[in-house]
Amino acid sequence: MTLQKSNIPPRRAQKKRRIWPWLLLFFCFAAAAIGGALFASSSLLDKPIEHAIDDGLLTAKDKSTIMIMGVDERDDDVGRSDTLMVASIDPKKNQASLLSVPRDTRVKIKGHGFDKVNAAYAYGKERLTQDTVENLLGVNIDHYVIINTKSFAKIIDALGGIDIDVPKRMYYEDPWDDDGGLIIDFRPGMQHMDGAKAITYVRYRDEEGDLGRIRRQQDFIKACLDKMVSPAIIPKLPTIIREVMDSIQTDLSFRQLLEFAGTLKESKQNGLKTDMVPGRPLYIDGISYWIPDLTQLRSTVADTLDVTMSAKVRHRLEQDAREYENSIPANASEVPASDTSIGRSTESTKKHKAADSTAKKRSEQREDNAEEKKRSKSSASDNRSGRDAADNDTGSSRESTPAAPDRSVPSRSAAPAKTQ
User: Fold this and answer.
1) Where are the beta strands (DSSP E) in 330-381?
2) Rounded to whole angstroms, what are the CA distances from 383 to 237, 305, 354, 409?
3) Where are the alpha helices (DSSP H) in 101-236?
4) What confidence tens digit (pLDDT) does each residue in 192-210 have?
5) Pseudo-torsion of CA 272, 278, 283, 287, nearest 10°?
């Protein structure tokens, strides 16, 4: 039996279609779209749930507020916040501002009454410090970052050091420092600082007090931003942040820290704004404090955050300002010039110089008036003496009051009598 050949043409061999490149390309586009959507809505703007409560504090909608603390912790001490700043970040406009809070600022600490703001960390760590700063500024703070001295050095070293222009000669020596002795020694001019040197620079205090140190710290942060925008550092930022995450304490995620650093970097081109809590130094029970101007402070914060104060917020501001002023004892006094622990703000220094200049001008004016009055009396006395001498020469019987003779014109009575 023979098989008949089929008239059906054989099926052509087809090449297998490789669809995985197209799938890979699709997933790449999808991932890029998702990533773009995620970063278009910055995670820094995610607000904690408790901020939804209207508690009379300002809440920025399109900005994020981050409290940054430099903590000086020792083995036998709980530590205190040595440096305290609040950053306002606008990730959409790539703008940022830094508000420094002097560590001697007199504030009300919940459960402990009025004390210096740096004591809040010793009483209740970052949570109580954040609560205290929120009540001082009248604004909700979204996140916090805590950096101790060792972490600070590691961050600066990770950036490869910082170049900063030292404004003047700086020298300080403390052989009793807990770390085995402290020597701060800088010459004026541009200096390259590693982490160890940078710590001593930002901690240095002189006759300008804590306020002078704050100004140098703000300049140092600007120098750090200069380094961050350098071509050699930009591609390394994710790696640097990953390295230092283990050295800091924060409630920010890695992505949020990356956005934070990126916004700070971009804000350098837009102009990083720096400010300090306005106020004045004051002595209370022999201790020097920085007394904040709450009205000016909260108005400045509202302007920075582009937030309009509601009636409830204004009412709380008035209550807080009134309570604060009433809490200052009647025996409080001005800080003497010999106490340079706090220093004076630039505005305060200008006012003091203006007052000194005005007092000096008034003193000089009083001296000029006294001299003019003295000359007037002398001139009047000389005139009377001349008139009396003339009366005596003409035989007048009027008595004259003795007076010093006018040295410029000889008196007639002094002329020799003529002989006959």
Assistant:
1) none
2) 89, 74, 43, 11
3) 119-137, 149-158, 195-203, 209-228
4) 999 989 988 988 877 777 7
5) -40
pLDDT in tens, 112-165: 999 999 999 999 999 999 999 999 999 999 999 999 877 888 889 988 999 999
Q: Write out the two tokens for 256.
A: 């949020």
Distance CA 129, CA 173 (A): 31
80: CB partners within 8 A, 6+ apart: 71, 72, 103, 118, 119, 121, 122
Measured CA to CA, the distance from residue 413 to residue 393 in angstroms comes to 7
Contacts of 59 (CB under 8 A, 6+ apart): 47, 51, 139, 140, 307
List 194's β-bridge partners, or say none: none
State the alpha helices, DSSP H only, in 193-293: 195-203, 209-228, 237-244, 254-270
Residue 147's H or E segment, with its range, is: strand 143-148
Which tokens in the block code for residue 177?
Answer: 């420092």
